[in-house]
Amino acid sequence: MSDDRAVEGATEAFVACRNLLFTVAYEMLGSAADAEDVLQETWLRWVEVDLAQVRDQRAYLVRITTRQALNRLRTMARRKESYVGPWLPEPLLTSPDVAQDVELAESVSMAVMLVLETLSPTERAVFVLREVFDVGYEEIARAVDKSQASVRQIAHRARRHVDARRPRTVVSPSQRQAALESFLRALEGEDLQGLLDVLAPEVVYLSDGGGVKHAAPRPIVGASKVARLMVGGLAKSPIPITFGPIVVNGAPGLVIYLNGELDSIVAAHIDEDDRITGLYVVRNPEKLSHIGSEIPLTRR
Question: Which one of 129, 134, 136, 141 has the fewest beta carbons within 10 angstroms of its own beta carbon?
Fold first, then answer.
């Protein structure tokens, strides 16, 4: 096979698997920007592979991506140790199709992504490959350089860990949409009672400014505290604040513009009573750079 034909074949296979590879990397890393870097590293290694020796191109690409993501995940762990304030995953703009796929939507939700942060790098890789993408134990073992027996034990341990911490219920896309619409109406009207009606009593508010933008230094818990924080912030703001709907991390969310400039992305977790139990506000400009390339940066 000529070099041009080899590169063409490698390109076709990579493009066909790109969405899968990106999602694997994102769920392992919690960062779209880092996931894109991993895909670049994967491509550079993939194009050097003799495709005639590859039996399953998809599995081989997933293996390369997993190994590169593991290397980056260990580096990111050191960055997070010195991170200012709560760390949230980088918000990921997702299509309405993803929101309709309940299992995939849950796997990329902010709530589950935060649970994945509590796993070790290898546990996270094994969990994502096995539980989200149903990769076989033999292939996972190759990807993480462990025996199949070890991978089975890691998968069991990771599954038990995640199940003990992940949200207990999964609601329909229509329920999530209705709750976010009520939340949006209350925000736009600075309606304290309206917020109290849509927020669960035990709601947790997390905001991530990365030490660059103002954010709550620790979680805020309780509907009254969260509602008063949000209404108070709107009332005191000397410049206009506007909101827009967005589908982020597999569920309806909000984009917030401050004086017409992109300021924040808000993701939410909804319970079976159609109430918001978690609000995740990302303000760190670095974490908004990827999503900012896909939505309007300004709103007039």
Answer: 134
Report the C-alpha gap between 198 and 188 in whole angstroms.
14
Distances (CA, A) of 269 to 91, 92, 116, 137, 245: 14, 15, 16, 31, 15
Query: How deeply is 55 buried, as exposed, middle or buried, from its count of CB atoms within 10 A (0-12, 13-18, 19+)?
Result: exposed
**Which residues have C-beta within 8 Å of that of residue 75, sequence separation ≥ 6?**
none
Residue 58 in tokens: 């998809």
pLDDT in tens, 23-58: 999 999 999 999 999 999 999 999 999 998 999 999
Residue with tokens 């890789």: 125
Task: Tell me if 243 sits within 8 A of 256, measured CB to CB.
Answer: yes
CA distance 140 to 279: 34
φ, ψ (nearest 5 deg) of residue 276: -85, 120
Distance from first CA to last CA of the chain, Å, rounded? 55
